[in-house]
């Protein structure tokens, strides 16, 4: 394989990765990441995690109901709480499902938090803090 073919292959692979990452980040304007986390964490025998699943379902519904800022804030906070409660045990267990859930929670906490703390459409925010 020539050098130019190798560079083309590397460039196209990095473009695909950037595109996939961009799509994942853009999906945080939808309830899909919250609902995906809820489905992944809702499994038999884990009574403590059921509350986190229900909170993600509720946050996803807020986003689905066209309340992106509040739904994103709600999902972000509950994802961060999940990381505080189950992040360290997930890393220590080195099992794929707990690590995947911790990664999803981290993604949701960061990117939904971005929508909450730095909203794009400030005109949709209430004036004077909603008072």
Structure description:
The protein is mostly helical and 131 residues long. The protein has one domain (30-130). The chain has five helices and no strands. It is globular and about 40 Å long. The N and C termini lie far apart (66 Å). The model has no long low-confidence stretch (mean pLDDT 78). InterPro entries: AIM19 (IPR019419). Keywords: Membrane, Transmembrane, Transmembrane helix. The chain crosses the membrane at residues 68-85, 97-117. It holds the Pfam family Aim19.
Instruction: List SSEs in N-to-C order.
Output: HHHHH
- Average pLDDT works out at 78
Q: Output the radius of gyration.
A: 18 Å
Proportion of beta-strand residues: under 5%
Q: Mind describing the biggest β-sheet?
A: none
- Gross morphology: globular
| Poorly predicted runs | none
Tally of separate domains: 1
How many DSSP H or I helices? 5
Structural class: mainly alpha
Give the N-to-C terminal Cα separation. Answer: 66 Å
* DSSP summary, beta strand count: 0
Q: Helix share of residues?
A: over 70%
């Amino acid at each position: 394989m020539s050098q130019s073919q190798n560079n083309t292959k590397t460039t196209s692979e990095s473009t695909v990765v950037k595109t996939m990452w961009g799509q994942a980040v853009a999906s945080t304007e939808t309830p899909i990441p919250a609902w995906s986390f809820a489905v992944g964490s809702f499994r038999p025998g884990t009574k403590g995690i059921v509350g986190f699943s229900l909170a993600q379902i509720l946050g996803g519904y807020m986003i689905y109901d066209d309340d992106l800022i509040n739904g994103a804030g709600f999902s972000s906070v509950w994802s961060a709480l999940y990381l505080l409660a189950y992040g360290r045990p997930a890393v220590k267990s080195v099992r794929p499902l707990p690590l995947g859930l911790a990664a999803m929670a981290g993604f949701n906490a960061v990117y939904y938090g971005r929508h909450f703390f730095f909203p794009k459409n400030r005109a949709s925010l209430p004036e004077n803090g909603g008072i």
